[in-house]
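ok so for the tutorial part 2 we go from a plain amino acid sequence to predicted structure tokens. step 1 is just haveing the sequence, like this:
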Amino acid sequence: MVKYLLLFVCIIVFACNGTDTKEPLEYKGPLSEFEDVEMYYSENDKVKIKMTAELLYEFESGDREFPNGVYMEFFDEAGNMESTLKANHAFYFKKDDLWRGRGAVEVKNILKNEQLNTEELFWKPKEQKIYNDVFVTIKRQGDVLYGEGLEANQDMTDYLIKKPGAEFELKE
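step 2 — the prediction. this is what the tokens look like for a chain of 172 residues:
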């Protein structure tokens, strides 16, 4: 009996002397979550952009994710809506001040009655530029332009399709 007790004590002592310590897991998920978000960006006391989203995640780095999509309205100096943008998913990279929209991205120029559709689009707010390197379609009055890759200003008043193709409606 003493023999077994001594064996048991030795096992416990050796088992407890292990230096197995695990590193704590670092949490990389969002620090905060917001629902039914409505945000306004302004310059000189004038609203320039109105943004709405069902869900917003904010990360420690300042990055933001909109997993259920985003809708934006862009306004001119007089407060008139110039264009809209919507995407099924969006991400804002704070370090680069860059937005990425993915999944059924749609940009509409209200004044010119034109619409851009693509699967991915990047937006640099400070430069007021949008761009991508994937397939794009632009519907204009009676015409459809398509191609691969786009560079444009954010209101779609001036744009370049890098590898263009086009369809035109012919009226007899």
